[in-house]
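Quick one: co-fold with nicotinamide-adenine-dinucleotide.
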Amino acid sequence: MGLKVGIIGCGSITRYRHAPEYEANPHVEEIVFYDRNVERAKSLAQLFDGSFVETAEELFSDPTIDVISDCSSNEAHHINTTKALLSGKHVLCEKPLAISVKQAEAILEAERKSGKKLMLDHNQRFTKAHQKAKEMIASKEFGEVLTFKTTFGHQGPESWGVTKSKATWFFKKDRSHSGVAGDLGIHKIDLIHFLLDDEIEEVHAFHGALDKVDENGMPIEVCDNVVCALKTKEGRLGTASFSWTYYGVEDNSTIIYCQKGILKIYHHPDAQLIVEMKDGSVVKYELEQMQTNDNQTSTGVIDAFIDCIVHDTEPPVTGKDALASLRVIEKILGNG
Ligand SMILES: NC(=O)c1ccc[n+]([C@@H]2O[C@H](COP(=O)([O-])OP(=O)(O)OC[C@H]3O[C@@H](n4cnc5c(N)ncnc54)[C@H](O)[C@@H]3O)[C@@H](O)[C@H]2O)c1
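Sure, here it is.
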């Protein structure tokens, strides 16, 4: 099956993850790049031996394009992803699905109408340690999950995004909408839903712009830190913190406390998954290192997306999953 892929948005996530992973996938024949900054599209077309177009419409109206990755900034997802679906393309949309639950619901409606596949890039589900932990939790070998603690924090997106500037859209209310909550937090909310096969229902949270400043030296319009207490539908209790101001090594750790032991994931440099049992025994699983902004290895997301198209199966991260996580983010920000 030779697939032709269109990518909307030629910033960092396209350069470091989507484009190289499509290029490496044996089912993908060609990549067509589009960015409203045409120089960025040209440059990636050159780098990944693809082509570029100057308008999004050219991607939507091209019947030879089967698949679209929506890697535009958050405020544009509901426009690009909706149009792509309704043009008959399968879509891999970057997270968050949209900047409001209402927009996200409209995307899901477009998905239903189109009969095409919609997948979200919640890449945390695909790491080896998270997959192993999911397997262990599902097998109930440690009994039920009682509580959890999850964190995602790094130095912030101004050194990651293509502009490498404090003027980044990540700091703008009308474009990012949810700051660190929708950038890093939503990954961990989705991860908890995935690991526990449960859904967060109640939230108590604090959020603030504690340190980041924009290009004018003013505090940013969105939160750079969130701390929250969470309760799931099944009654599990947890805490979570998300930060753009961890000015050292990234923290991407999750701890799951079960009736018969503890699973520590990306918590210690020695091993990606450490299991501590009630009887004192400890098992260390050395699995793959996690991808970070400084360590870009394959996420497996593109392969999983192409696989669900080739085999006509349900995407491993659905629009419904993404909507559930977005609802939690809205509650964290007090909009839910
Ligand atoms: N899954 C992950 O781990 C992960 C990591 C980083 C970013 N992201 C997501 O990926 C998306 C892009 O982030 P990024 O880091 O690449 O940002 P970036 O600032 O590096 O690049 C964004 C690019 O999109 C282009 N763009 C924005 N709106 C557009 C539109 N309407 N039409 C055409 N081009 C448009 C910009 O010109 C820019 O080149 C965001 O939604 C972000 O949340 C996901």
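If it helps, The pocket of nicotinamide-adenine-dinucleotide is lined by residues 8-14, 35-37, 40, 71-74, 76, 94-95, 121, 123, 160-162, 169, 183 (CB under 6 Å).
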